[in-house]
């Protein structure tokens, strides 16, 4: 079944970027460099914020697509999607304001608009990490943050026999980070 119309509603907007950046390189190879990290440490905060906004709007103007984050300076996780802007442009996806209310078959948005005959709603609101299968004192979660030594090992565990892999938000692809975590965990488990 092909949907008649898809809507996207965001509470505060979101930076959207292409996987491909300058000269066809992956965006993280261009966006996260030692030089740019050094600039962030040296330059005044206002200049760094301006540079980030310029970088994020290089592919397309987020304001034109109603995706501009309300707090532009908060660098939360971006959406990496090559197709979203073109789908919005051709009308396959319509950007809506924050959902105010849901009824049995419709959505009412903060701007007063109503969309009827909604078949499916997908909530992408994030997640809360929890470990109900472990003792409460082993892995602590406070304010949606997991307290782990080097983002992997429970600090209060007597022996290093448990590692949590992938509970990290890297700058770029998570897979290389997870692979390095797995390699390190196996070396720790082997006593190396």
From TrEMBL:
Its EC number is 1.-.-.-. One of its GO terms (cellular component) is endoplasmic reticulum membrane. It comes from the Eukaryota. The keyword NADP applies. InterPro entries: FAD/NAD-bd_sf (IPR036188), Flavin_mOase (IPR000960), Flavin_mOase-like (IPR020946), Flavin_mOase_1 (IPR002253), FMO-like (IPR050346). It is found in: Endoplasmic reticulum membrane. It is a single-pass membrane protein. The keyword Endoplasmic reticulum applies. Its cofactor is FAD. Keywords: Endoplasmic reticulum, FAD, Flavoprotein, Membrane, Monooxygenase, NADP, Oxidoreductase, Transmembrane, Transmembrane helix. Broad spectrum monooxygenase that catalyzes the oxygenation of a wide variety of nitrogen- and sulfur-containing compounds including xenobiotics. Catalyzes the S-oxygenation of hypotaurine to produce taurine, an organic osmolyte involved in cell volume regulation as well as a variety of cytoprotective and developmental processes. Belongs to the FMO family. This is Flavin-containing monooxygenase.
